[in-house]
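Thread: "does anyone have the structure for this chain?"

Original post by V.I.:
We have the sequence but no experimental structure in hand. Need at least a predicted one for the grant figures.
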Amino acid sequence: MDYWLTTPRLGLRRFTAADRDWLAALYTDVNVTRYLGGVLSPSQVDRMLATRVLDYYTAHPGLGIWMTIERETGTRAGFHLLNNIQGESIIQVGFALLEPFWGRGYGTEMAAEVLRYGFADLELRVIAGMASQQNLASQRVLTKIGLERRGERAFPHPAYAAEGPMAWFERERDAWLARS
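Reply from O.Q.:
Generated one for you, tokens below.
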């Protein structure tokens, strides 16, 4: 398998149109999507895959949403991302994992590598993260990878508006480099 970014246990690769059914299945799982804006219909998944994933690779080189693969088994575990918060110029790091992969440290392991990539390779000045106020597990991951909690923030884009204020995290490249 060709991965463009790896950790000891995980690899990232670009999504393809062939991943549509897998992504559609992920977005029918109420537990997985509880903090992702909820379940999506097949047509909503098709729009997301086209605009937010596949077209995004071309429009924003170096950024995107990538399939997270368990390297030992080749199993698709979820996805990690480094992209614009919808409707904003802010770059965020994030992830979603299927339930069988929760509690294994996969979110933290790959999110830390994605953050490193954003600061070291892309030389981004600031990277943010956000999580539902109730999603304490994701908040812990964002803290573990080196982002700092900076209060709460709400976004007007329909993808986030219903959630209301979210836990907000940021890190500046210079502070990350000094820590690393």
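V.I.: this helps a lot. The chain has a mean pLDDT of 95.
O.Q.: and The chain has one domain: 5-179.
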